[in-house]
Design a protein that fits this description.
Blueprint (H helix, E strand, L loop, with lengths): L1 H6 L1 H20 L11 H99 L3 H9 L6 H27 L4 H33 L9 H6 L3 H10 L8 H11 L3 H28 L1
Helix pairs in contact: 3-5, 3-10, 5-6, 6-9, 6-10, 8-9
């Protein structure tokens, strides 16, 4: 109903203009017996004045309504254009921020990926270090050395030499593997300090094994110890071995079993402390590198 009134308002207005005078005549002059008052000339004058004032008012109202509608449409267009311009600007700003943000995010992601990769490499290196350190510590075999000394009386020369060679091969291979792992580490200064501490005991252990080889050679081949002889210089005994032989044995006389065993026991006296120290240094090495990795990955 409201929509119908909005669409047909001009029809109602026209009807009202013509019906209003009739209703005034009817209600105002209702007591009279005549249908209307006044002469034809009076009514013609009334209608002329009435319509002359009403029609321009209607025309002005129509023109005003059209202008108002046009202004409304123009305002709507302007408002739509402004909204579209603002929306386009916001989209451009958002796109710029997104591109800059994506660029920053990409850089951050690259840094994070590099950090993650560095941590993974460090973890992998630590696993390798743990493995080679375990082999390195196990290569120092106190019981095997004691067994070699004990079996010199009842075992052959080839068996004793083979056992000593096995111990030398194991410890040298373990030391080489540890050196290779350390070379793959990016911060070699702190790592090399631990390795330098282990090298002291490695050299001591290897020297004792080589002295045992010399003792076995002298004992099984009944070779007298002659200081300064070509054969002794070729064997290259350590200063400790020379001192023990000169203290216990006799120059130019072959060493018997008892003297060989006594010299051997003196040589291997540092072995228990060496094995213990190597184990402690290896554990300290591993703990320090684990702490360093944790600090680096958390930072």
């Amino acid at each position: 109903m409201k929509d119908l009134l909005k669409q047909r308002w001009w029809i109602i207005l026209v009807i009202g203009i013509f019906v209003l005078p009739v209703l005034l005549n009817f209600f105002v002059f209702k007591p009279t017996s005549k249908l209307s008052v006044g002469t034809l000339q009076d009514w013609m004058s009334f209608w002329g004045s009435y319509l002359g004032a009403t029609i321009p008012a209607i025309v002005a109202f129509v023109i005003l309504s059209i202008q108002r509608k046009d202004n409304k449409l123009e305002n709507e267009k302007n408002r739509t254009a402004i909204l579209m311009r603002d929306k386009t600007k916001r989209r451009c700003d958002y796109w710029d921020r997104s591109m800059n943000g994506e660029k920053d995010l990409t850089e951050n992601e690259k840094e994070k990926q590099l950090d993650v990769f560095a941590c993974e490499q460090k973890k992998k290196w630590l696993c390798e270090l743990r493995e080679v350190l375990t082999d390195y510590i196990c290569a120092y075999r106190e019981n095997d050395i004691n067994n070699i000394v004990s079996c010199m009386y009842c075992s052959s020369y080839e068996y004793v030499q083979h056992k000593i060679e096995d111990l030398l091969d194991n410890v040298i291979k373990a030391d080489t593997a540890l050196e290779l792992v350390i070379l793959n580490h990016e911060e070699k200064d702190g790592v090399c300090s631990h390795k330098n501490g282990l090298n002291v005991y490695f050299n001591q252990y290897v020297s004792i094994l080589k002295d045992l080889q010399i003792l076995a050679h002298l004992y099984y081949n009944k070779i007298p110890y002659i200081s300064g002889s070509l054969e002794i210089r070729q064997l290259n005994p350590s200063n400790d071995l020379v001192k023990h032989i000169q203290t216990i044995g006799k120059e130019d006389h072959p060493l018997n079993y008892d003297k060989i065993i006594e010299i051997a026991h003196r040589l291997i006296t540092p072995i228990p402390e060496t094995v213990k120290t190597v184990r402690a240094l290896g554990f300290e090495f591993m703990q320090d590198e684990s702490k360093r990795m944790i600090c680096r990955c958390h930072n």
